[in-house]
Amino acid sequence: MGFTPSPGYKTRSPDTPVSKLLHTCEISYDNPNGEGTAYTLSVGVTSEPFHEVIAQDGIRISNENVVLGPNRAYLYTRDGRENTCYLSWGTFYGTALWLLHSGYSSTGDNVDLCSKLEEFGNSLYQYMPTKPSEMG
Question: What is the pTM of this model?
């Protein structure tokens, strides 16, 4: 996908209570010649129950049926975060939570982040834990 990985534990997250954030990995894309759009993709796992994640104030669900392997994920945006789109689904540990953020566009293009995130979904899904033994 052209992203650069920066795995590691986070000390805080703007979208998930610290006590419930199990692990995140951020990967980013910035065109080397400075053209196009820069993206940051955060892939996280949280113990927060899925129904609580999507019931938060300001959530605007655009698709409740994104197919990722055997799962059905929700694609959504949040009020006040126009440059970010989210993709989440329930898991044995709580919720898988992905977000795609656009930092800038040198061309002024208006990129549909939710379409991009859905496009990346099946490429990334294979790396998500599906059973407890994969959480280590």
Answer: 0.76
